[in-house]
Amino acid sequence: MKNQLLVYSLLCVSTFINAQNIMVLDTIYANNHKNVALFFPQPIRQGITGAENFVFTYNREKEQYFGLLQAAPGTESNLLTITRDGRVYAYILKYADRLPKLNYFIPEAKSIGNEKPEIKIKNITKEIIDPYRDRTAYFERFSAYILKTKLEPLATKRKKGIRIQLQKVMYQANEVYLVIEIKNKSGIDFEVDYLNVYRTNGNNKRKASFQKLQQQVIHKYKIPHAIKNGERRRFVYVLPKMVLGNDEKLLLELQELNGSRAVSLKAKNL
To answer: Which of 4, 11, 42, 230 is 20 to 30 A from 154, alpha carbon to alpha carbon?
Structure first.
């Protein structure tokens, strides 16, 4: 419901549409078995769906021309996309077991309007860029609860005495919670520079087909700055809800601060 209101507000406030022309939006079909690719004439700056059973994924760190759409069975929805040049594209989304198309090459003529003015759009974007700021207390409580539940290794990687382990993946509302543990048996304290989360598609040995998209972490619970030798630390990452495709994997990359030690953990079938 919140996503639907957000899409409606963006359309009303951020776009300039000729009201005299009645537009019939095209329909795009998706499911949870295959990725549907949408290629736009300009890099995607923002994209959002109106219902949580549809997930539209695009590179938020480095603007690219395409995004991937997946869906779970449920009510129909809509997709709003804004490209770098301010053009707005809108589509109706429906779930289908059999897909009529897997790739959509969208021309500029399909744009329903343009943002106006640019400065006002930036101000609006700043207001909605962090929709989770009022949910911090909830993230804290739910993360604390998860750490008390039964945990078991889902994926493990060891390197140079440092072990990183994914112990639980839990979906709640529009978020996904990752329980991660780092254990240090290297004989030297380990200071954390960063721990990034990516979703990958393809084979990294074939760079032309390999995709690596960094995921937004909206909350970190009990994330350690350092893990002393002989110590293990467990913590929670909260991310926006995502659906991994059949050929996609989750990638965790841990890097040491002021050091060369790094550990990468891949997980699939979550």
So the answer is: 230
pLDDT of residue 24: 78
Q: Is 51 helix (H, G, I), strand (E, B) or coil?
A: coil
CB 24 within 8 A of CB 235: no
Cβ distance 28 to 68 under 8 Å? no
Confidence of residue 17 (pLDDT cuts 50, 70, 90): very low
The boundaries of the domain holding residue 164 are: 134-267
Q: Tell me which H or E stretch contains 157.
A: strand 155-159
pLDDT above 90: residue 211 = no
| CA atoms of 29 and 46, how far apart (whole Å) | 20
What's 12's DSSP letter? Answer: H
CB 183 within 8 A of CB 227: yes
Quote the radius of gyration of the chain (alpha carbons, Å).
21
Count of domains forming the chain: 2
Q: Does residue 209 have a pLDDT over 80?
A: no
Pair (150, 117) in one structural domain: no
Of the candidates 189, 187, 209, 214, which has an alpha carbon nearest to the alpha carbon of residue 199?
A: 214
